[in-house]
Design a protein that fits this description.
- With 158 residues, the chain is α+β, with helices and mostly antiparallel strands.
- Helix content is 34%, strand content 42%.
- A hairpin with a 2-residue loop joins strand 6 and strand 7.
- Helix 2 (23-33) crosses helix 4.
- The longest helix has 28 residues, at 129-156.
- The radius of gyration is 16 Å and the shape is globular.
Length: 158
Amino acid sequence: MQFTVVQRFACSPETYWSRSRGPEFEAALATAADVQVEALPPRGVVQRTRVTQNQPMPGVAQKALGIERFRYVQEVESDDAAFLTRWTIVPDVMTDRVTCRGESRVRASAEGCERVITGTIEVRMALVGGTIEKHIAEQVQRGYQKAEPVIRRYVEGA
């Protein structure tokens, strides 16, 4: 399952990039996205965090995966010159059956800039894979929607 989220902001890509960094910003995003975040040691240039969603997964997903809440390590590599991050989500369970990855790019637009997030979520499990993919995609997209006002406050200075 592929997804795309586009968010527009009234600032330049440079302003967006410089203001959307740091521990205070990250903590505000985690609160808005309704997740718990724990910083992990980086692997070279790849930043790593453990993320636990506060909301439980649907019953069928809980039964199939053997967990109540989706928990994962998010790995992010940034290309500051291109205003680009590439991310990978490595779930705590069934890492050989679940693939989540994508990128977030900030680019100029007529109104200022836009953040374009593209991703792929694949769950290779008979019968329930599609249901789990849908839940993960909904949670990820809902997190981006909840985070948008927080990002706006930081990057637009509103």
